[in-house]
UniProtKB/TrEMBL annotation, chain B:
PANTHER family: ABC TRANSPORTER PERMEASE PROTEIN MJ0413-RELATED (PTHR30151:SF0), ALKANE SULFONATE ABC TRANSPORTER-RELATED, MEMBRANE SUBUNIT (PTHR30151). It is found in: Cell membrane. Pfam families: BPD_transp_1 (PF00528). Belongs to the binding-protein-dependent transport system permease family. Residues 56-240 form the ABC transmembrane type-1 domain. The keyword Transport applies. Keywords: Cell membrane, Membrane, Transmembrane, Transmembrane helix, Transport. The chain crosses the membrane at residues 64-84, 105-134, 187-207, 219-239. This is ABC transporter permease. It is a multi-pass membrane protein. Gene3D superfamilies: MetI-like (1.10.3720.10).
Amino acid sequence: MTLLDVRHLRKVYQGRGRDVEAVRDLTLAVGAGELVCVVGPSGAGKTTLLRCVAGLLEGTSGEVRLDGRPVVGPPPGMAVVFQEYGRSLFPWLTVRQNVELPLKEKGLGKEDRRRLVDEALAAVGLAGDADAHPWQLSGGMQQRVAIARAVAYEPSVMLMDEPFAAVDAQTRADLEDLVRSLWKRLGMTVLFVTHDIDESVYLAERVIVLSNSPTEVLEEVAVDLPATRDQLTTRSLPRFAELRAHVYKLIQQAKNGQRPVA
Amino acid sequence: MNALRKGVQLLGLPVLLIALWWVATVNSDNFFWPPLSEIAGTFRETWFTGRFTADVLPSVGRLLAGYGLALVLGVGLGVAIGSLPVLRAVLEPVLEFFRAIPPPVLVPVLMLFAGIGTTMKILVIVSGCVWPILLNTVEGVRAVDEVLRDTARCYRLGRRARLLRLVLPGASPQICAGARQGLSVGIILMVISEMFAAGNGLGFTVVQFQRTFAVPQMWTGIILLGLIGVLLSLIFRVAEARLLSWRNE
C-alpha cells in the first residue's frame, strides 16, 4: 500500500531575473513500512524534494500525497530529522522537554507523554540523559535526541535529511544501525535522504537515484540484502559490493548529466 | 585566596577612587568642592530622615513603572513586528523617526498633554526606554534559527507554543541586551523628568539643593543616584543570568 506518493513534482525557484528549476519532474512512491533511501549527486535537489514532502515548501506543480491526502503544509503524522542536529533541538529545553514538546501539542496526557518519552529515550540509548541540555551532549547524542523526538511522536512516516552527514564515522555507523533497528521494531515508514552511497545501500530496502539538477528519478534500485544487517558482515557481502558499484555508477552518470530515458 | 583576589578586583578601583577624592578634598575650603568627609557626614541626615520615602521611593517607583511598561510594550510590539514582514515594512520608517527624537525634548510636549504629575514622568521614561527594547526584540525575533523554525512547523507547534517555546526564548538574549540599554536610559530620564517640573523625587531634590547652595547635600544626591544605578544593574544581572541559564556556561 502506497503511503507517500510524489507525482510529477516540479519546483522552480524564482530568482531576481533568473528562475532556477531545481526539480523538473519527480515521481516516486513509498509503501507503508518501507525504508527508502534517496541518493543523488550534490546539488541534485535532494533537500528541495524533502522540504516539499515535509510540507515546508510548496512545489511549483505536481503533488505530494500522504495517506491519500495532499500535503499543503506540514501534515500530522510526519516527523523530520534534520541534518543540523545542533540547530533543530531547542537549546533552552532539556532533552526530555525537547522530546515531550510535540507530544504536548498533540494533546497527549501526562502519563502517555511520560511513557512515550521514556521509551523513546531508552530506544536511542539516552535514558540517563533526560535532564541534560542538548549542548551538554556530543553531536551524535544530540542527533539521537532528535531521533527520539521523532520516534516518540509516533509518526506514520519519518523523513531524514542527511541526518548523519555531520557526525564522525564511528558514530555514523552506530546511528545507521539504530535507524535500522528502530525501523524494524516499530514498523515505521522511513524516507532517508543521503549523499552517501554506502549508507543508502546499507540502510534501504530500495534506493532511488536522482539525476543532477533539474532533478528527475534516474533509477530505482531494489536492495536484496538480508533483512538482518550489521556493519561488518553485510558490508563485506559480494552482493553489497555489486549494489554499491551499481549505485556508484549511476551517480557518476548523473554527474555527467545523463537523464532518464523517456 | 581566590575570593580575596576577586574582592580586590571588584572593590579595588572604587576604594582607590574614594581614597583619592578623600585626600584631594581633605583640606578643601572651596565652597563647591567640600571635603568628602563632610559629604559623607551629611548623607544619612539628608536621605534617611524622611526623604527616602518622600523622594527616593517615588522616583524609583516611577522608574520601575515606566521601565515595566516599556518592557511590555517593547517586547509585545517587537515580537509582532519581527514576526510579520508586512508590519515591519510599514512601521520601520516611522519607528526610525520616533527613535531619532531625543526623549528629553518630549518633556515639554508631554507636560501639555499629561500635566506635570506622575503620568507625565512615566510617559517620558517609557518614551525613551522602549526603543532599545523594541528594536532589539525585532532583531532577536528575526534571528531565530531557521532550522528551529522548520522543526516547530514540522511538529505542528501551535501559536502559543511557538511564541513561548520558540520565539521568545530564541530572542531572549537580544531582548536582554535591549532591556539592559533601556534600563540605563530609564534612569537618566527619571532624573530629567523630575528636573523640569516636579514636587518631589531625586532629580527634583538635587536641583533644589543646588539652587539653595546646599552643596554637600547636592553631592550626596549624585552619589545616591550612582548607587541606585549600580544596585539596579546588579538586580538586572541576576535576573538575566537566571533567564539565560540555558546558554552554555
